UniProtKB/TrEMBL annotation:
Record PANTHER family: ENTEROBACTIN SYNTHASE COMPONENT B (PTHR43540:SF3), PEROXYUREIDOACRYLATE/UREIDOACRYLATE AMIDOHYDROLASE-RELATED (PTHR43540)
Domain Isochorismatase-like, chain residue ranges per copy: 32-85
Keywords: Hydrolase
GO molecular function: isochorismatase activity
Entry protein name: Isochorismatase
Keyword Hydrolase tagged: yes
Organism: Agrobacterium fabrum
Lineage of the organism: Bacteria, Pseudomonadati, Pseudomonadota, Alphaproteobacteria, Hyphomicrobiales
Highest taxon listed in the record's lineage: Bacteria
Length: 102
């Protein structure tokens, strides 16, 4: 099994976000930005020229620029290719073999 094709859908708008009950504000000195699953392998399941990918990449670029400008470390996840089944463990059951080529 692999990841099925994902149809384009609209990004949520700020008006639909839940209220910030805590009134917490981001503190750049105590923050890190984690960019997760943005490898081409994962993005290829979406419509490449769709509004979702355009909005996602534009928004991510803005967040990353803010992080860099404010001294927030930026960390990326990267799934290695050809992982042994023992390393993938439960991922195999859900998503199949994963990245099989570089």
């Amino acid at each position: 099994m692999t990841i099925p094709t994902i149809s384009d859908y609209p990004m949520p708008v700020a008006a639909s976000f839940p209220a910030n009950k805590t009134k917490w504000q981001p503190d750049a000195k105590r923050a890190v930005l984690l960019i997760h699953d943005m490898q081409r392998y994962f993005l290829r399941f979406y419509e490449a020229d769709g509004k979702l990918m355009t909005a996602l990449i534009d928004n991510l670029a803005k967040v990353k620029a803010w992080a860099v400008q404010n001294g927030v470390p930026v960390i990326y996840t990267a799934q290695p290719h050809n992982q042994p089944p023992g390393d993938r463990a439960l991922l195999n059951d859900m998503w199949g073999p994963g990245l099989t080529v570089v």
